[in-house]
Amino acid sequence: MKLLKRGVLQLLLKSAFILVSFWMLLQVRFYAKGRHLSVLWGFRWLEYTGADGRPENVCNCSAIFRGKLEAIEQAKMLAISRDFRKSVRVPDEFYVNTCKNCRKFKIDRKYILFPLSQEEENFPLAYSMVVHQKVQTFERLLRAIYAPQNFYCIHVDTSAEPSVISAISAIASCFPNVFLVSKPVNVVYSAWSRVQADLNCMADLYNISTKWKYFINLCGQDFPIKTNLEIVKTLQSLRGGNSMESEKMHESKKWRVLNSHQIIDNTVQGTGQKKAPPPFDLPILSGSAYIVVNRGYVRSVLEDNRIRQLIVWANDTYSPDEFIWATIQRMPGVPGSTRPSIKYDMTDINALARLVKWSWHEGSDRSLDAVYPECQGSHVRAICVYGAGDLRWMLEQHHLFANKFDVDTDSIAVYCLEKYLRQKALSEMQ
């Protein structure tokens, strides 16, 4: 009997040893790939849930996405409530203090710290992010697009509040692939400095890695409407092409490039002098500040002598960010470019780069002239600051990002969108 018991005990110990060895082997395999052991058991710990304690939890995001009027009206009422706005506001100092413990910050904020698929890992992206305020909105944008294989250059205006610079610096310090631009400038609205901010990030990103495939520029009030995997698949489908607004310039805008301008008291004003024609008789196209371009396009911007001369010529124009990229996109020889013919014109609606609702293009569903339905949020400089009621329509569009969002104005729109994208990203991987 004693021998039998001893034999059973040895068998149990041997079985336990085999199980422990197998468990340790799994640990090594998953950690070697940069993945937490939780990969084996699911990703519930990365989901955004009601247990997070966010004030926006009182809203029913699912009903909002289904277009339920009651849920949308509740979100609208909360968005204009002073007490609710106060409850969702996060001071800049919070990020400075929290990021003293980077590991805790990344875990508490549920950053995704490993590639969710081999396809994404093999197709890294480069982002330029130009910000000057609203750290909370910026941090939620970064969290929504963060992936360890990507690269993120953050341009914070030199004129930004010290608390903003400190907070964003603290956040960037917690990630090896997030960094502040090496040459920050003071960005003046409609001046060349807006382009220069992106140019400086382009140079830093180009030099920091040879791996990334596409460059996307953002501002602090953008937000993705696609997961990283969806963005990667969409960019792969371009087969090396670029995507941005680029079309014939309307007569009402030509004064911007025909006359010389200068900055006076932080505003762009005309000098009264006419400009010389653009170099090489380049046709100046109308476009947007926001682009989706391949690495070769960025190389051309940094190295092509024709583009360098165009940059010098454009330095004293008005709102050069709304024509410089669009013009380069139609220059022969630039990787991913298209010909200057009007047949290759692309509007912002057809481009992938950015979904923007302009007030003069809005209208009811019955209107044949309306480009998109009426804004469900508010307007800033004729641009819709999205509300929760815009989300359902937004997710039906093909664009990669949308503008504008503002946590201070409507945090529910951002909250529901980030929950939706996180759940979808985890579902795609599983």
Notes on the structure:
The chain has 430 residues and is of the alpha/beta class. Among the domains are: 40-88 and 352-430, no CATH class; 246-344, no CATH class. It is built from 17 helices and 16 strands. The protein has helices spanning 2-32, 61-65, 69-79, 82-88, 92-98, 102-108, 118-121, 135-145, 162-172, 193-208, 228-237, 255-258, 295-303, 305-314, 324-328, 391-394, 411-429, and strands at 125-131, 151-156, 178-180, 214-219, 222-224, 246-248, 259-264, 267-274, 285-287, 292-294, 355-356, 362-363, 372-373, 378-380, 383-385, 401-403. The strands form 6 sheets. Strands 3-2-1-4-10 form a 5-stranded mixed beta sheet, with helices on both faces. Helix 10 packs across helix 13. It is globular. The model is unreliable at 20-41 (pLDDT under 50).
Number of strands: 16
The overall pLDDT, averaged over residues, is: 91
* Count, helices: 17
Structural class: alpha/beta
Largest sheet: 5 strands, mixed
β-strand percent reads 5-15%
Outline, from the CA principal axes?
globular
The rounded Rg comes to 25 Å
Strand order of the largest sheet: 3-2-1-4-10
Uncertain stretches: 20-41
State the share of residues found in helices, binned by percent: 25-40%
| C-alpha end-to-end distance | 50 Å
